[in-house]
Amino acid sequence: MDIVRYIKNKKLLLFFFVVSFYKLYKNKTQILFFIYKLTKKGKKHIKEKQSKALTTIKKKVFDKKWQHNFNNLSSEGKNIDFIKDIVHKRKQTLNHKISGTLYNNEMMNKTIANYMYDLYMYSNPLHSDLYPELNKMESEIVKMVGKLFDLPTNGGGNLTTGGTESTILAIKAYKKYKLSNTLFSRQLEVITTKTGHAAINKACELLDLKLIYVKLNKEYVMDINDLKSKITSRTCVVIASSPCYPYGLIDPITEIGNICKQNNVPLHVDACLGGFITQFNDSLKISFNDNINSISVDPHKFGYAPKGSSLLLWKNNTIRHKQYFIVEKWTGGIYASPSLPGSRAGGQIATTWGILMYNGLNYYKNIANKIMIVTRKLVKQINSLQTFKVIGNPMVNVVAFNSDIYSLGQIIEMFQKNGWNLNIMQNPLCLHICITPYNIDKIGDIVNILKIITTKKVEDKDEGLISIYGMAEKIPDKKIIHEIIEQYLDLTTNL
């Protein structure tokens, strides 16, 4: 028996040795970098890289000479003409060569928004007895937009301040629902892909949930087979994108919905970026009928409402009720709120309602069709250059691309020289352009600039912000990147 036990222990030790060696070998880069970081030379080199990146960013982004600085409240308030003068001097003049950010610049949309906001600037729908009309407006927004997604009559939803709040509320509800229907209290899991919006990461951090990533397939969308292997008894929700922010690609929603149904796991679809685009094309449209439990969509993007307007739609109220915040025994009275803020901006609800009413269905449909046509044309043209390649096969409103020959810094520099401001993606490093009514007439420039780049000598221009992205991909220790970003955020409120 002693001999048998000895042999078993030896096998066990050997097994652990092999596993440990494999992990060590697999993470050899991390280990070597950790050792390098501890050396005097390594510390100095890393600090120099951090400093150089921050200096470049500060120079390009924050080093602006302001004519006036106000660090204290004046004893007496300033008159309106003085305030207008300061604002006009500070306001940046933007051209139409930006990616996303501004979605519509039509004067009549602004006129309607200004009129509605002025009426409800100081209102608070938390007090539904005082502002019942705001509750009515919110209800009608839910029904009007919900109709695009086949929202059932027994479904519902709420307006939030943005896609991030919609995501946090959805995940909060799914966590509470899961816990109310399970006997264990172990850490629950949220499943998505690495292309899922960073708001999911934020929600998981706030709500103490473990984030599980599903692999991307060769088309850069959620891999169905890997999803099947990731779902467990701890899964409280699967989150898919329609489309994802980095590449503008739509996860296979119908297949994902079927898998979720088979495993009795709810499905949330993030349609914040393209919900007002996909729903006007039969081949791209998503529907609550596809085993979807909730959908987030942003009227402040392609719904052309002012910033601070997102919708969280629910197939039914069973899980939606877990979204609510209710305190029955508060000394200040019964407290009930459907969203993260208590007091909500009534002006936000009113302007969103006014914009939707003013624009109408055909307006959205016509713009959506134009954007999709331009998107597919751009994809075809970039791929034809061969020197550059599009990530996946985007069909909605975002096109991401990179090059195996030219550095991202060199590409960005050429776009900046031509007045363009594009967004940087990572893993892999690439640029993306979000096509909007604001920039749609300028999209032809993209291909022309790429053609110019093909005539240039290949150079390494990766510095400043690009340097940070490059470091983030190459350096195993993400703490170093974290420190740089912390200092970057400090700069934004220390001007």
Describe this structure in words.
With 495 residues, the protein is an alpha/beta fold. It has a domain of 249 residues: Type I PLP-dependent aspartate aminotransferase-like (Major domain) (Aspartate Aminotransferase, domain 2, 3-Layer(aba) Sandwich), CATH 3.40.640.10. 48% of the residues lie in helices and 12% in strands. It is built from 17 helices and 13 strands. It has a seven-stranded mixed beta sheet with strand order 1-7-6-5-4-2-3, sandwiched between helices. α8 links the parallel β2 and β3. The longest helix is centred in the last third of the chain and has 39 residues.
What CATH first level of the domain at 110-358 would be assigned?
Answer: Alpha Beta
Instruction: Classify the fold: give the CATH topology of the domain at 110-358.
Output: Aspartate Aminotransferase, domain 2
Query: What oligomeric arrangement do these chains adopt?
Result: single chain
Radius of gyration from CA coordinates: 26 Å
| Helix amount | 40-55%
Counting H and I runs of at least 4 residues, what is the number of helices? 17
Regions with little confidence, pLDDT below 50 for 5+ residues: none
Provide the CATH architecture of the domain at 110-358: 3-Layer(aba) Sandwich
- Secondary structure class reads alpha/beta
Order of helices and strands: HHHHHHEHEHEHEHEHEEHEEHEEHEEHHH
Strand content: 5-15%
Report on the biggest sheet. Answer: 7 strands, mixed
Query: Which geometry do the CA atoms define?
Result: globular
Q: Distance between termini?
A: 75 Å
Query: Strands of the largest sheet, in order across it?
Result: 1-7-6-5-4-2-3
Work out the number of β strands: 13
Q: Give the full name of the CATH homologous superfamily of the domain at 110-358.
A: Type I PLP-dependent aspartate aminotransferase-like (Major domain)
